[in-house]
Amino acid sequence: MAAHLPLMVWLSPSFPVGAFAYSHGLEWAFESGDLHDAETLRDWLEALVSHGSLRNDLILFACAARAIEAGDETALAEIAELALALANSAERRLETVTQGNAFVAALRAAWPCDAIERLKRVWPGDVAYPVAVAAASAGHALPLAASLEAYGLAFVANLVSASVRLGIVGQTDGQRLTAALVPAVQAAAAEAEPATLDDLGGCAYRSDLASLRHETQYSRLFRS
What we know:
Elements: H1 4-10, H2 26-32, H3 38-51, H4 53-70, H5 73-85, H6 90-110, H7 114-122, H8 129-139, H9 144-166, H10 171-192, H11 205-213
Helix pairs in contact: 2-11, 3-4, 3-10, 4-5, 4-8, 4-9, 4-10, 6-8, 7-8, 9-10
């Protein structure tokens, strides 16, 4: 099976994980004035890709995929637990587990594989989204590099879509931003592919604060 075909399905807006409901704190950042045009949005998203939450998600993805391939269930359970612990706000946790659990349910129904069953056996609780997609990717023998790039680009595309709905940028600028961030996504994926849990870490404080403050926002379109 060509690697891009299942990835295109799993990471498309039509796959029932509810990604459209989350802004990853962008909604608060927009209201507070941090984000107001294409330039500020690009800086914000590039920070998430290069040294923020996406960087960590890609490392967790790579480690989970390798644990599946090696049959190391102890490591897989550790990664699944750590992925939840790294969600640094209630809304970030909601965002990752709601999508992760929905992804597992949809995959079991339509794209079953032993790796997903092993994941649920060693970690029966909530599953973080990158760990769920990693298990599916490894379980269907998809190349890790392509899977990381696809996951990263889907993350960026979803936040650009949220930004268009918020009115930070228009549709054309949104597409320009997505295209402009492809090299950063590729670089982050390449860095994550050989990484270990020791490489986890980030520095995107303003984004983290946005995710903490979003829950008190008076009027909201998004759940995070």
